[in-house]
Amino acid sequence: MKQQLSSTNTQYSLKAASLPEEIKPVYTLTNAIMHESNPIQEKGLISIQGVDKIFVSERGHRVHALSNTWIEVAEKDFICIVGPSGCGKSTLLRIVAGLEQASSGQVLFQEQVQNKPHPQIGMVFQQYSLLPWRTVEENIILGLEIDRSSAHKKKETAERYLELINMKQFRHSYPFELSGGMQQRVAIARALANDPQVLLMDEPFGALDAHTRILMQRELLRIWEKNIKTVLFVTHSVDEAIYLADRILVMSARPGQVKEIIDVDMPRPRTRSNPRYGQLSEHILDMLEFDNISQSDTNNEYFSEVHA
Amino acid sequence: MRFHFRKRNTIMSKSLKRGALALIGPVLILLIWFVMADVIDNKLILPAPDKVFKHFITPLANIIGLGALTKNILVSLFRVFFGYLIAIIIAVPLGILMGYSRTANELGNSVISIFRPVPPIAWQPLVLAWFGVTSAATLMGLTRGDAYVYLNNFKISMTFIIFLGAFFPIVTSSIHAVSSIPKTWIESARVLGANEWDIFRKILLPGAAPTIINGMRTGLGSAWTCLVSAEMLPGSLSGVGYLITHAYEIARVDVVITGMISIGMIGAFLDFAFRFLESRKFKWQHQIK
Ligand SMILES: Nc1ncnc2c1ncn2[C@@H]1O[C@H](COP(=O)(O)OP(=O)(O)O)[C@@H](O)[C@H]1O
Ligand SMILES: [Mg+2]
After folding, report:
1. Are A300 and A284 in contact (CB under 8 A)?
2. How far apart are CA A170 and CA A172, in angstroms?
3. Do the beta carbons of residue A114 and residue A98 sit within 8 Å?
4. ipTM of this predicted complex?
């Protein structure tokens, strides 16, 4: 662990002077390049090894979405991924989910190559993923139905997860009768009902209003603490990442690449008034802003979101 | 309890009001018809309404030597349903396949695009050349008896025309229904371990059902519209369409109008039945964005 502390990331040396010293990324891109892989990260449950993704459109137009991405995800880790939009966060998650294939490199899950949906990997999408003709309860047990579980098990599981998300009285409601926040709770319950080891979440609260969003973050942590899973959580909001994550993975603009991994060294439950909160937030925002400037991207979405 | 009652009452008065509004048009037309028939005073141009309605009052009476009105309606209904059923059996799976698979779509779409604009009536000469007066009876090898008389009414040519009328609305709406299913629905099922069959059963079919049913409703209307042209084909001896053409030949305009009203009423009723089913079964569809 010592070597990466001593090697400074030259790109940020200017900024680093004004930052509190104690923010010590556990991984930086320059380090990884120097060592030709990622000796710093320990082998994990999910091992993303040098993944590249190039999309080729119908007209032959190529989009380099992800470039040489190395990530190790340890069991029961709560990892948040932040990065400019279009940097390949969703793509990365979709590759891990097995919905998309890497152009090169590979993803290992439990030491097996992961290239198609795996029963132990669940996913929550940003919105509108519930089946509108099914009630809340029927949506929750979709995975069990696909697995051809017994009626008894379906009933029991539905009960358990309705309870977990505090929505027992809504079991017979249809998605269109629910608020956005409630719909996402059901989507989370549906993913959990399959009892996966890993939960992938792609901006699950991205479409919610600021207040609901904060409530949902609390709710998610409550659920997670009762039911600890490995979580890979993509978000736009630095604030959200600091509130939720054990570790934050900052990605650079397209082609996406892991720029830095930061441990969130704050005890849970976290309070936004903790000075550490502000320091981490500033550090990450600076890093993203650097990207924005270098990309001459004028809208600073992270900043406005945090201060909203 | 009282509140519940009140609420029910307002719902009832609301639907009563809607019913009353719906009646205004037909009543107005009837009135104009009465007046015009009186003014024109020529039953070859416009017979009075009562001359027409008497056929509905005695639906079992033999009309112009073609048998009872009800019998003719039943024969037509069977013909339509037969052609329509075949259209559903072919168009729905084909449409779902084309909506889901890009290859299937590219393969089938050109053919459908070319044939769709051709009105079914335009097929008449070809259909006659191909099928002639072959009927369900001929196919079953019958030449006499009650079954022959009955089955001989179901000519392949007619069925084909009706089939064409229903096929295109159903296939195009099925394609559209499946291709507009959000990718997220399919992917949510996939990450839960769904195979292709699960996706077909649990996502595509229920997700596309409202639009497919809607296409089936249009298809039925269209099949019903093709009936008259189908029953004008040689070899036809019964059915509402035939009743109309034959009545025209012997200058019985009252029977022509009787036939028209029968087709209209039955078509409207079937359409209503479909809409009722849609509003009952697919409430969710109108609620999502
Ligand atoms: N199916 C696809 N075909 C072509 N380009 C795609 C596809 N999916 C994503 N992309 C492109 O890849 C880049 C990364 O996309 P995405 O992973 O969705 O970014 P993020 O989630 O970080 O906003 C974007 O430029 C996007 O336009
Ligand atoms: Mg995204």
Report:
1. no
2. 6
3. yes
4. 0.83
Alpha-carbon gap, residue B15 to A100, rounded angstroms: 52
- The one-character DSSP state at A43 is P
CA distances from B31 to A46, B13, B24, B27 (A): 79, 26, 11, 6
Q: Tell me phi and psi for residue B71, to 5 degrees.
A: -60, -45
Query: How many angstroms separate the alpha carbon of residue B113 from the centre of ligand 2?
Result: 37
d(CA B14, CA B4): 15
Residue A98 touches partner B, C-beta closer than 8 Å: yes
Contact B108, B190 (CB under 8 A): no
Cα separation of B6 and B4, whole Å? Answer: 5
The string over B120-147, giving b where at least 16 C-beta atoms fall within 10 Å of a residue's C-beta and e elsewhere, is: bbebbeebeeebeeebbbbeeebeeeee
Q: Output DSSP code: residue A302.
A: H
Asked if residue A235 has its Cβ within 6 Å of ligand 1, the reply is no
- The per-residue DSSP string of A107-166 comes to EEETTEE--S--TTEEEE-SS--S-TTS-HHHHHTHHHHHTT--HHHHHHHHHHHHHHTT
Q: How many whole angstroms from A251 Cα to the centroid of ligand 1?
A: 14
Q: Which residues of chain B have pLDDT under 50?
A: 1-2, 289
- Tokens 């549906």 locate to A190
Residues of chain A with pLDDT under 50: 1-19, 34-36, 39, 295-308
* Residue showing tokens 């200058």: B251
DSSP codes joined into one string, A242-296: HHH-SEEEEEPSSSB-EEEEEE---PSSP-TTSHHHHHHHHHHHHHHHHHHHHTT
Given the CA of residue A93, which atom of ligand 1 is nearest to it? 17
Taking contacts as CB-CB distances below 8 angstroms, the residues of chain A near B202 are: 131, 142, 145-146
User: Does A291 map to a domain?
Assistant: yes
Query: What is the domain extent for residue A15?
Result: 7-29+74-100+115-120+196-302
- A73: region left, alpha or beta (phi > 0 left; psi from -120 to 50 alpha): beta
State whether the beta carbon of A62 lies less than 6 angstroms from ligand 1: no
- Amino acid at residue number B206: P
Question: How many other C-beta atoms are found inside a 10 Å radius of the C-beta of residue A262?
Answer: 24
The string of pLDDT tens digits covering residues B128-169 is: 899 888 888 888 888 888 888 778 888 888 899 999 999 999
Instruction: Provide the domain count of chain A.
Output: 1
Main-chain phi, psi angles of A62, to 5 degrees: -105, 135
Separation of alpha carbons A210 and B79, rounded Å: 61
Nearest-CA distance from B176 to chain A in Å?
Answer: 18
Task: Check: CB of residue B240 under 8 Å from CB of residue B72.
Answer: yes
Q: Which among B261, B278, B283, B276 is positioned nearest to B15, based on CA atoms? A: B276
Q: What is the CATH number of the domain that holds A86?
A: 3.40.50.300
Which secondary structure element, helix H or strand E, spans residue B84, and what is its range?
Answer: helix B69-100
Domain boundaries, chain B: 1-41, 44-287
Q: Domain B44-287: give its CATH architecture.
A: Orthogonal Bundle (1.10)
